[in-house]
């Protein structure tokens, strides 16, 4: 396994024997803001073997994946949103960590299910993603983007079945209901309830870049998953702001 500047106790106090970190949205968002491009790969064999936690973002084309990543990292163009949905067919890795120490990686997987993509390309990328989700050794969490106005698609259901064994073994799983601002409060409550029933034990969060909904909560959750030592969660007194990104 290749190590990318593994963190030391001097850099991350939570790695000490009996130490903990007070997790606030400001801490989590500050960490996510350090995201920088690491590499891109058209196939699994071109991805570097890493020994830091990897968090994969997946979802149907047009589900708001690029917007979500850019909003969480407070960078307008970190994740590329193609003008032709479904055409971006590479796995993009982004390194996270302060003081030039990489302690986690975000993986942006290609959007799937867009009708204009040739059938053979769809099949190939479904196989690539399935293999990635099943075999990537340092994968610690999966974040599935879902537009709650449309619910889970057939391909989303297939993805859930693919990752279910790993989730049962401890892989973290989060469904982000994007574009929540498009729903009424009652519709949000209903969508959240339905998705919790379908998430197979995973976490579910409502998210809106426009209304700034769910940003702090999701950021804190991702930080905790990437730093699985004992932590003390402290609520933020002041909402943390992050710029809005367009998908």
Commentary on this structure:
The chain contains 6 helices and 9 strands. The protein has 247 residues and is of the alpha/beta class. The protein has one domain (17-233): P-loop containing nucleotide triphosphate hydrolases (Rossmann fold). A 7-stranded mixed β-sheet has the order 2-4-5-3-6-7-8, with helices on both faces. α4 (154-168) links the parallel β6 and β7 (172-177).
Index terms:
6 helices, 247 residues, Rossmann fold, seven-stranded mixed beta sheet, two-stranded parallel sheet, disordered C terminus, single chain, disordered N terminus, alpha/beta
CATH topology call:
Rossmann fold
Helical segment tally?
Answer: 6
Compute the number of strand runs: 9
Question: What is the CATH architecture descriptor?
Answer: 3-Layer(aba) Sandwich
**What is the level 1 CATH name?**
Alpha Beta
How helical, in percent, are the residues? 25-40%
Quick one: biggest sheet? Answer: 7 strands, mixed
Order of helices and strands: EHEEHEEHEHEHEHE
The total domain count is 1
Question: What is Rg?
Answer: 17 Å
Query: Which ranges are low-confidence, i.e. pLDDT below 50, for 5 or more consecutive residues?
Result: 1-18, 235-247
Envelope shape: globular
Distance between the amino and carboxyl termini:
34 Å
Structural class: alpha/beta
Strand fraction equals: 15-25%
Query: Overall mean pLDDT score?
Result: 82
Strands side by side in the biggest sheet: 2-4-5-3-6-7-8
């Amino acid at each position: 396994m290749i190590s990318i500047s593994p963190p030391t106790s001097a850099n991350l106090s939570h790695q000490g024997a009996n130490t903990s970190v007070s997790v606030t949205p400001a801490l989590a968002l500050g960490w996510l803001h350090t995201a920088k491009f690491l590499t891109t790969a058209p196939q699994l064999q071109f991805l570097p073997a890493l020994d830091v936690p990897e968090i994969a973002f997946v979802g149907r084309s047009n589900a708001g994946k690029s917007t979500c990543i850019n909003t969480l990292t407070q960078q307008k163009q970190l994740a590329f949103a193609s003008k032709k949905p479904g055409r971006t067919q590479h796995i993009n890795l982004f390194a996270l960590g302060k003081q030039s120490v990489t302690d986690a990686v975000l993986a942006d997987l290609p959007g799937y299910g867009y009708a204009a993509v040739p059938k053979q390309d769809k099949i190939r990328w479904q196989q690539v993603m399935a293999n990635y989700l099943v075999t990537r050794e340092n994968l610690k969490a999966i974040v599935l983007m879902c537009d709650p106005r449309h619910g889970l698609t057939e391909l989303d259901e297939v993805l859930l079945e693919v990752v279910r064994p790993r989730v049962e073994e401890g892989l973290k799983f989060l469904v982000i209901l994007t574009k929540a601002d498009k729903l009424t409060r009652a519709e949000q409550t209903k969508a959240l309830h339905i998705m919790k029933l379908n998430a197979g034990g995973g976490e579910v969060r409502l998210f809106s870049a426009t209304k700034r909904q769910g940003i702090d909560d999701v950021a804190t959750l991702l930080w905790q998953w990437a730093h699985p030592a004992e932590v003390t969660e402290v609520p933020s007194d002041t909402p943390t702001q992050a710029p809005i990104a367009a998908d």
